[in-house]
TrEMBL record:
This is Carbamate kinase. Keywords: Kinase, Transferase. PANTHER family: CARBAMATE KINASE, CARBAMATE KINASE-RELATED. Residues 1-291 form the Aspartate/glutamate/uridylate kinase domain. InterPro entries: AceGlu_kinase-like_sf (IPR036393), Asp/Glu/Uridylate_kinase (IPR001048), Carb_kinase (IPR003964).
């Protein structure tokens, strides 16, 4: 089976969201053991990852040191997070595969995602990045032109432009590596936002793409059977945060769209995860899963997690 797994950037930080190197290395090492188990079981795996906390930290470092070293644009920060997290993942994955006696190896691609320069996401920033701030600190930065949203129980978080992903430009290379037996790390942080200019040339553009939506795209482009969005809960739930909260198990595309319409899921959080797995099931006929990292194998076998499956054919 060909499986695409999306690992959240928040899963690679401590609860304070600071993304210390040791927290990230530990989280990646844990994830690598579980992913290696799937590879040894005979699956082809493409792993993608978030970068919200990491790209926010890099952007802030750029801004703080701008009078000393030339700052780089946000898409360069995104590329840097792909390299750093990718390198961590390669060593962790290859180590886990070797310990299991597997001779399969991993490969990480610096990878771009095509977006439309006219996407409304450029004028309405929605993607939360970086650390959480108290309201008074956020208000000062808002006065200086930055955009923030309040995240319940966590604090205030900066938001940046986040256009829709249209095409994973390096998808064919990922497909080739998968066919050669590599465990592929690709499209980290949603991919480096890239636009095609009128003359046909490609160039980066400042934004952070939602990695769950890009995961659905790369899963489609590489003909995956299953897309797993790995997060910190076993399932998406209805009526989240209330006494009526219930886990969502196996649902069809139409059922999941109805649940989304009726109650909504948090933007920048469960919302894009639900949209990603629903799109994937709708567009490919595969299964889209939301579950926690430690439950991936059970969810793929159909035992738990939120599993979105295609609608049954309409009888004639
Ligand atoms: N780029 C992105 O969606 O990252 P997170 O999953 O860390 O928010």
């Amino acid at each position: 089976m060909r499986i695409v797994i999306a690992l959240g950037g928040n899963a690679m930080t401590s609860s304070d969201g600071r993304a210390r190197p040791e927290d990230q290395a530990q989280a990646v090492a844990q994830a690598a053991e579980l992913v290696a188990d799937l590879v040894v079981a005979g699956h082809d795996v493409l792993l993608t990852h978030g970068n919200g906390p990491q790209v926010g930290n890099l952007l802030l470092k750029n801004e703080l040191s701008a009078s000393v070293v030339p700052p780089v644009p946000l898409d360069w920060c995104g590329a840097q997070t792909q390299a750093t997290i990718g390198a961590l993942m390669l060593s962790a994955l290859d180590g886990a595969l070797t310990r299991r006696g597997s001779d399969r190896r991993s490969a990480a691609l610096v990878s771009r995602t095509l977006v439309d320069a006219a996407d409304p996401g450029f004028t309405d920033p929605t993607k939360p990045i970086g650390r959480y701030l108290p309201e008074d600190e956020a208000r000062v930065l808002i006065e200086h032109g930055q955009h923030f949203v309040e995240v319940p129980d966590r604090g205030w978080r900066r938001v940046v432009a986040s256009p829709e992903p249209l095409e994973c430009l390096d998808g064919p290379a990922a497909d080739t590596l998968l066919a050669q037996g590599y465990l592929v790390v690709c499209s980290g942080g949603g991919g480096i936002p890239t636009v095609r200019r009128d003359d046909g040339s490609l160039s980066g553009i400042e934004a952070v793409i939602d990695k769950d939506l890009t995961a659905a795209l790369i899963a489609r482009q590489t003909s995956a059977d299953v897309l797993v969005i790995a997060t910190d809960v076993d399932s998406a739930v209805t009526d989240w945060g209330t006494a009526h909260a219930r886990p969502i198990g196996e649902v069809t595309v139409a059922e999941m769209r109805a649940i989304s319409r009726d109650q909504g899921f948090a933007a920048g959080s469960m919302g894009p995860k639900v949209e990603a797995v629903t799109r994937f099931a709708e567009q490919t006929g595969g299964t889209g899963i939301i579950t926690s990292l430690s439950r991936i194998a059970q969810a793929i076998e159909g035992h738990l997690g939120t599993r979105v499956v295609p609608d049954p054919p309409v009888p004639r």
